[in-house]
Structure formats: structure tokens, C-alpha cells
Amino acid sequence: MSADRINELVSLLSAERVLTTAADLEHYGRDWTRWWQPAPLAVALPENIAEVQALVRWAIQRKVAIVPSGGRTGLSGGAVAAHGELVVSFERMHRIGEFDPLDRTLTVEAGAVTETVQQAARERGLCYPVDFGSRGSSQIGGNIATNAGGIKVIRYGMTREWVAGLKVVDGRGELLDLNRGLVKNATGYDLRHLMIGSEGTLGLVVETTLRLTDAPRNLQVMLLAVPDMAAVMRLLELARGRLALTAFEFFTDRAMDHVLTEGGQSPFETRAACYVLVEYEGVGDHESAAMAVFESGMENGWLSDGVMAQSETQAQALWRLREGITESVARYTPYKNDVSVRVSRVQAFLSDMDALFACEYPDIEVVWFGHVGDGNLHVSVLKPESMDKAAFEHACERVTGMLCDVLEKHGGSISAEHGVGLLKKPYLSRVRSAAEIELMRQMKRVFDPHGILNPGKLL
Ligand code: MLT
Ligand code: ZN
Predict the structure, then answer these.
(1) Residue nearest to atom 9 of ligand 1 (CA)
(2) Structure confidence by residue, pLDDT tens digits, 271-315
(3) Which atom, in ligand 1's list, is nearest to the CA of 334?
(4) With a threshold of 0.85, does the pTM exceed it?
(5) pLDDT digits over 408-450, tens only?
(6) Cβ distance 278 to 221 under 8 Å?
(7) Coil, helix or strand for 290?
(8) 378 pocket-lining for ligand 1 (C-beta < 6 Å)
(9) SS (H, E, C) 237-249
(10) Using a 6 Å cutoff on CB, does residue 133 contact ligand 1?
């Protein structure tokens, strides 16, 4: 039975583009979460849109679910295939296509790696500004499917802002060519935006036309040592008014400790409770503006120290302290909370969340960091070595349920940028109304009437 299916897939693609070894199934069947055991039927590597359509039609006929697969850097289990699904990997569809200098757009295939797209934009004198630590592995199709955010959202917004055109294959095998790169298009429902963030449940992203922008000028990076969260928020207000910010990132001393165990040194002689990495464009009299921020921060007791990168190498070393956090805690199989509230609610929300975690995770290490400039906090709960995995999962799920009460109080979201996938699915109804969820289910039936696209994820 399974051999028949594999043979059919081979006849649609070719033997070398249908992978079935245990190592391949394991590799392509999971993302960066390590909560589920991968068990797909096979992995298909299409090379063009027609092949993706053929795979979808085959899946309908054979009643086999499809899990779309990009760089698999997701953190919510959205790309996990644990139930005999066909993984459709876009890694062979990575062409960088047409650049239009007048439109300032670049067309790329779904499997193009984020960093390659950023580089291609740079080579054309422009910038693709969506950026995050997984830029070297994540793919544009996955970024679109999850509406990826990252470290520059405060300035440039989420992936959604940059998608001018989108080609997707829906659950009937139809190719939809959405918005075609237009800036203005007042012709009813914008299906492009429905697809963005739908986590592969409505359609498979095969190609996109991305908007590009001017490269930021003369980027400056400083790291500030800050006593508490109240001070972080005051500094945000202060810095926002004076500097052309491109990032405002926060992490605790404990988070920095984890990064430093992998190498490097703290730039400060005396450690603080937390740190803020501020990146801004060095335009106008930015030196005086930065000095004013620093002095005012010191006078008000909002910071105790600060360093300014004097070179690209120093800037990278400061960024590493923030971007290295995820990798430095990966060995603890962390449970990740990726929550957001309006920026104005961050401080109150954080103190409630802190109180909850202090009470509910007394013997479990919790690492805080995030994109505080846009209201997004990451809280990685680390599994103690001595604790059984099932007991840890149970504890995290129980506390996340309680966290939903706190989110409700502050009008926040259980997933800011990582997506719902499998990990946050049990909590969707805590942050979206029953009426909204019912509409989502109905939409899923319209685009995917056979229920073959990433079933069990999100909804
Ligand atoms: C980050 O901001 O570093 C990522 O969202 C990854 C994470 O939360 O671990
Ligand atoms: Zn993040």
C-alpha cells in the first residue's frame, strides 16, 4: 500500500526527489520544536509549480495529508509531520527571479532562504528588511505562511507588509495569482492577506513578489544596562522620540549568562538585571541625540551603564548577545511562550506574568527576552535535567492555561510571531472568539475542501 504510493510519487517527480529513508523522514518531518516524533510517509521535492499542483491532486485522490516544509525553523510545530503525511519541501524551488527597479520588487520562489533574498536585495542597491536570527535557514514561503516578525518589526513591520504578490496552490490544486505586485488594488477581498499567516492550512506558497526598500543608513548599535522593566519602557519612550530606531530588543541577565556559556564576554564590568539593545540609523546629529538619551537615562536611574559599538565587529558582538539566546538554551528542550500585548501594556502585563511564573515555576528556570519595542515577549521555560519530559509538558501546559487569563486581562495574544501550529492550538479559543474560529473553519473548507493541507495545525 505504502509502496504503491511511493511509486506513484516517483512517477510524478523522480526517484531522487522522493525521499523515504528514516534519516530523511526524521529530518524533514520536524521543525525546531522537539516535542513530537516525526513520522511522515515520504518527502517530495518539487522543482516547479506544476509539480506542486500534481502533488496536491495526487494527495486529494489518495487522501494523504500534505505538510509544507520550508527551513523548518518554526517554533510551534507548524511543520511537524507525525502521522504519515507527505512532506512537500520547497528547497528545490529557490530561484531569485525578476527584479524591477521602478516597482522596487523582487520575485522569488518559496524556497529562497531569507538571507539569500536579503543579499539579492542588497546587490540591487535596496533592502529586504524583515530579519531574524534564523535568516540563514528560514525560507520565504515559511516566513509568509507564518507572517514572520523578528528583530526589525518596530521599524518595518511583519512579513505581511512586504508581500506585493503571492502565488499559492490551494487545496483543490488550483494556482491562485494574488495581487500581482500592485500597490493599489481595490477589488474586494484581499486573499493574499488571508494566505499570509495561515500556516499552510489554506494553500501552499510557491512564489512571491516582495517589496524592497532603501537600505538603512549608517546603523549604530548600543547596549544599555537597565535595572528593571519599568526603566526599559521609559527608555523606549525616550529613545523613540530622539533616534531613528530600527530595533529595540530586551533580554535578562540570565539570558546573557546562557549566551556567554557558549563563549564571549559581557561588555559591562557590573552586571544589571536586564539589557536593551538599541539599533538606529546614524543620521542628522545622531551623536548628540544618543548622548542625550544616555544622559537622561542615567539621571533618571533608567540605566546604569551603556556601550556603543565602534565597529561592525563590535556591533555584531552586541547583536550576538541577543541573537544567540535561542541557540544557547536549545539543549534544555525549552517550552516557548511567544506572547504580545500593546506596547503600552507591556510593563503591567510583564509584572503579572512574572508573578504567575514565580509562583507556578518555582523550581524551573525561565529565560526572558524579546522584541519589547513592538510588545512581543519571549519566555523560554527550560526543562530541568532531572524532570521527566511528560511531567514538564504537563506543567507548561497548565501554566500556559493560566497565562491565558493574564493575556485576557491585558488584551494580548498567545502567539505574537511563532504561529499557532500544534503547540498553541489548545489556547486559540482563549484569544480568538468562537465566532472568529467558526469563520476560520469555514474558510478552511473553502480553500481546502478535502482537508489535506496541514490538517490538525492551527484550528
Ligand atoms: C527570537 O526572537 O529570537 C525568536 O523568536 C526565537 C525564540 O523565541 O527563541
Ligand atoms: Zn522573536
Answers:
(1) 326
(2) 999 999 999 999 999 999 999 999 999 999 999 999 999 999 999
(3) 9
(4) yes
(5) 999 999 999 999 999 999 999 999 999 999 999 999 999 999 9
(6) yes
(7) helix
(8) yes
(9) HHHHHHCEEEEEE
(10) yes
